[in-house]
Design a protein that fits this description.
globular; alpha/beta; disordered N terminus; 13 helices; 30% helix; 5-stranded parallel sheet; 316 residues
């Protein structure tokens, strides 16, 4: 599937690299022109997801796109100190340790007309936002087998500048059967983090993707306590954007230099966290594109960890 889809987008360094690597569930960033080429040459098989809120979708969207806004992918955010479960993905059971809720995702994705092997183009806000690249991350965590593309940057002008015309007509999808097969061990819970803090492993790196102020404790982000998880390394998710751009990601070489300097290397299991498992969507996708295969996300993130009175917190 990968080679066939990418054949219509020759000339792009990003897409050419993806074609060489290939593989089920490959994820990649593409620009507006590449998105337009993909739509033009593979409209029949390409499933387009508009991840924005319904009112933005109604104002104008890519023809044929299905609106799957943030609440499809993530539960209502737990409020710091409220005692709500430390989860942001839909998960099975009443505790925090259940697996991803395949029944929920199968229902909403099947009703939208998606199958687990279809190639997908996601667009919306920039990477690392709930209405941006979060669907890319969740689809991959669900074991989606088709290739997943994300339109990098901000604004629908990405598409109109590339010659596409927006529509205000809502799609009428034909329901299908979606069969999620979540990746085992790819979503960490509090028990996993506690075990790592008590006994760090050299083969695991805990990546704090928040802001510098959250990392150094000068901002508590409304949590009961400020600080970071002991043993974590820091590269802020905003450091992965090209300076001066409309929130487009760095080229691979520049990004890899930052990651290597922090000890985030491909042979390790990389576990990412932020405040609500949102900003991690950008680094998750970036690592997948660069060939990292051992990835996990701490679902509860600091909204959970920093609001418990028995977790270890580290400050500079």
């Amino acid at each position: 599937m990968t080679v066939m889809l990418l054949a219509g987008c020759q000339g792009s360094e990003v897409v050419a690299s993806a074609q060489e690597e290939g593989g089920d569930g490959f994820v990649t960033f593409i620009n507006g022109q590449e998105a337009a080429a993909l739509i033009e040459t593979h409209a029949d098989e390409l499933f387009i997801i508009d991840a924005r809120k319904p009112d933005q979708f109604a104002d104008g969207h890519l023809p044929g796109a299905v609106n799957l806004p943030p609440d499809v992918w993530r539960t209502p955010k737990a409020k710091p100190g409220s005692g709500q479960p430390g989860r942001h993905f839909y998960r099975v059971g009443s505790d925090d340790a259940g697996p991803l809720d395949s029944e929920h995702y199968n229902s909403v994705l099947g009703a939208a007309g998606l199958t687990e092997d279809a190639p997908v183009l996601v667009y919306g806000n920039h990477a690392g936002k709930a209405d941006g690249s979060v669907p890319v991350m969740v689809l991959h965590l669900l074991g989606h087998r088709g290739d997943i593309f994300f339109a990098d940057g901000v604004g629908t002008h990405r598409f109109t500048d590339a010659g596409l015309t927006l529509s205000t007509k809502a799609a009428a999808p034909t329901a299908t059967t979606y069969n999620a097969q979540p990746i085992e061990g790819a979503v960490w819970d509090l028990a996993d983090v506690r075990a790592y803090v008590a006994n760090p492993e050299a083969s695991v790196v805990l990546w704090d993707t928040r802001s510098p102020a959250e990392w150094d404790g000068s901002s508590d982000r409304g949590n009961a306590r400020a600080g970071r998880i002991p043993g974590a390394v820091f590269v802020g998710f905003s450091d992965l954007f090209t300076p001066g751009s409309e929130k487009t990601v760095l080229q691979k070489q520049a990004m890899q230099q930052k990651l290597t300097a922090a000890g985030i290397t491909p042979e390790k299991t990389v576990v990412m966290y932020c405040q609500t498992a949102t900003r991690v969507a950008l680094p998750y996708q970036a690592l997948r594109e660069m060939g990292y295969t051992k990835l996990a996300v701490y679902d509860g993130s600091m909204a959970e960890y920093a609001n418990l009175d028995d977790t270890e917190i580290e400050l500079p």
